[in-house]
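Let us work through a complete example step by step.
Step 1: write down the sequence.
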Amino acid sequence: MKLNIAYPSTGCQKVIEVDDENKLRSFYDKKMSTEVEGDVLGDEFKGYVFKITGGNDKQGFPMKQGILTAARVRLLVSEGHTCYRTRKDGERKRKSVRGCIVSSELSVLNLVVVKKGEKEIAGLTDTVKPRRHAPKRASNIRKLFALTDKKDDVRQYNIKRRIAKEGQKAYNKYPKIQRLITPARLQRKRSQFAEAKQRVKASKKAAEEYNALIASRYKEARDKRAAAIQKRRSASQKKSAPAAAKPAAAAPAAKPAAAAAPVKKN
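Step 2: predict the structure and record it as tokens.
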């Protein structure tokens, strides 16, 4: 089995081939993301601690995290799953993957150095491979150069690459710094904040004007309704006043009482 060992601090990786089953037995039945002592591989790896990050079986199928088996399985995967890249929107496909448990069916096992041991490993820890791409984010550049003062200009620490092609003039290439806070950016944020405040004030003023208009219209409607009611009441009072005055005038002109009928004497 081949062991592909990577050391992120130097950016190097090294492939070693191990045929001794006694050395490989300590990796068997271990899951991905498990840390393994490097002493089992020999004295040159004494003190090292490796982390299992994946691998491929003898037919080339990769290991997939979360599949708790050492065998090969077929999964229905879609966009967002590992070991699969979609070609169309909404596409799903059944793919063969190896479980996340290490077994003798693997041909390559990927390891990452978590802790460095006593001795240097040739081609892995003794050489530093320059990074192909420098960090672009401003906070990562500060972290790389240990810039603790906010007054330090990150643009002065931007890593450049010299591009020299045959028959062309050489030039430098700089990555664009992301999330860079400049005076122009601060001014833009202040203007955006001021515009937002103005929009809030304008909306509040418009709401107040609208509410005042609605209140005035409601008041006009109430006044109009009250005036119509008052008009109807006054009209009904005018109609009822003559009808009440006629019986009062006819009361003095009442007919005289009829004379009493004569009483017959026997």
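Step 3: interpret the result. Helices lie at 21-24, 138-145, 183-250.
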